[in-house]
Amino acid sequence: MHAIGQYQQEKERYGLGRYSLWTGDLGLAIYLWHCITTEADLPSLDVM
């Protein structure tokens, strides 16, 4: 819930979202999805 609040505050402050995979909107969406589904994997972690 804290991450969603931070996202909304930053979007209101700057007028746009972030586009980075790990720290941007997509990264937040992936993080929240894993919180909801309780999956522990990360995309592309096997490649690193």
Low-confidence stretches: none
- Classify the beta-strand content into a percent band: under 5%
Average residue-wise pLDDT: 76
Estimated radius of gyration: 12 Å
- Large-scale geometry: flat
Largest β sheet strand count, sense and barrel closure: none
- Helix run count: 2
Task: Report the order of strands and helices.
Answer: HH
| Beta-strand segment tally | 0
Number of separate structural domains = 1
Structure notes:
With 48 residues, the protein is mainly α. The protein has one domain (2-37). It is built from two helices and no strands. It has helices at 2-14, 25-37. The radius of gyration is 12 Å and the shape is flat. The N and C termini lie far apart (29 Å). The relative contact order is 0.13. The mean pLDDT is 76.
